[in-house]
Structures are given as C-alpha cells and as structure tokens.
Amino acid sequence: MSREFEVLKSHSLKAESSFARPVQILPDRVKLDDFALSVLTDFTKVSLVLARPTLTLEVANSKMIRYGVRSLIVLNSADHVAGLLTASDILGEKPMRYLQSMGGTYADIMVRDIMTPQHELEVMKFEDVAKADVGQIIATLKKSGKQHGLVVTEGADEKQTLCGIFSLTHIAKLLGTPLDTVFAEIEAVVVRSI
C-alpha cells in the first residue's frame, strides 16, 4: 500500500532575514571556587565570531561591536586558526606602532598586521580546564598577562581543536567584582598557601 504525501506550501524568504544561533546559558553569578567550565565560552554551544587576516581593523572592530565580543578568532584560507585579534590589540598601541614602522593610514591596517599569530598563542587543554575552578583560570591568565585564554581538545593524532575561550572581562562581570579586586583576592590566596 502506497502512501501519498502532501506537498507543503512554499513561501518567499523575506529581505533582511536572519538565522538561528546557538545560545549558551551562563550563570548570573559565579564564585572563585566554582567550576571553570561555568565561565568558559564553549564553541560547541555558541557561534564562533571569526575574521580573516585580510579584513581591515575598522571592519574587525565593527564586527566585535556588532556581536558584543572582545576577540575574534582569525582563520586562514584553509580554515585553520591563524591567530587571535582582541579589542586590546585594536584599541591599544599596536596600530600606532605598526603605522610608525610601515607607514600608511589606519584604514590600511589589516587584521594580520596586529593579531597575535598562531605560533605565539598559548592554550589550555580542556582536560585540565575541566578539573579547574574559576580562581585557577584567573591566576593562569594573570600570570600570562593575557585577557583571553584559549582552550583546546587534543585528538589521538595530537591535532588540536579550539573549543572555547576564557575572557577576564567576562569572568569579572560574572563575579560581580572589578578585575583589580579579583586579582588582589587571588594573590592573597596564593600568598597564604605558600
């Protein structure tokens, strides 16, 4: 016995239509001894905001503002991680130093000119992060002098896959405490434990 299937009605896609994006639900507040994963921006749960090396800084900055992020993962033409561009890179001294050494105007600067390239990026392994707490992540980022910490998984073939990022600004917001106060609390704990 053969069943007949009714054809659904088709509709035109309206101009300026958007698309669904995954959403990661984060807690309203965290404490220093909460699990580190509670403050990780997990790329399996949220869309990664990307840039290409040839994007201009002006466009990259606009992209960060539009998506409400303070960093962009930079991909090469093979979709491998080429580097990381942060708001601090764009708004700090890097553009001015680049112009002083290379000449040109701000509009000429591309992401590749001031990003932190892949070979200079340090990462944390997911297996370590999964056992850590928020305080350990803050201490690690503070020691590295970085605002952001990348997290990777590693396969049996030792190839790494970027799976998340920590942001000190984001963590401070979830703690409900200014970063300077958080750093002081972390240092006090480290000194007491020595």
Structural class: alpha/beta
CATH architecture descriptor text: Roll
Q: Distance between the terminal alpha carbons, to the nearest Å?
A: 79 Å
Q: Could you name the CATH topology?
A: CBS-domain
How many strand elements?
8
Task: Give the rounded overall mean pLDDT.
Answer: 89
Tally of individual helices: 8
Strand order of the largest sheet: 1-8-7-6
**Looking at the structure, what is the overall shape?**
globular
Report low-confidence residues grouped into runs of 5 or more. Answer: none
How does this structure look, described?
This protein is of the alpha/beta class and 194 residues long. The protein has one domain: CBS-domain, CATH 3.10.580.10. 35% of the residues lie in helices and 18% in strands. It has 8 helices and 8 strands. The protein has helices at 57-67, 87-91, 94-102, 111-114, 126-129, 134-144, 168-175, 179-193, and strands spanning 41-42, 50-51, 71-75, 81-86, 116-117, 123-125, 148-154, 160-167. The chain has a 4-stranded mixed sheet with strand order 1-8-7-6. It has a 4-stranded mixed sheet with strand order 2-3-4-5. The N and C termini lie far apart (79 Å). The model has no long low-confidence stretch (mean pLDDT 89).
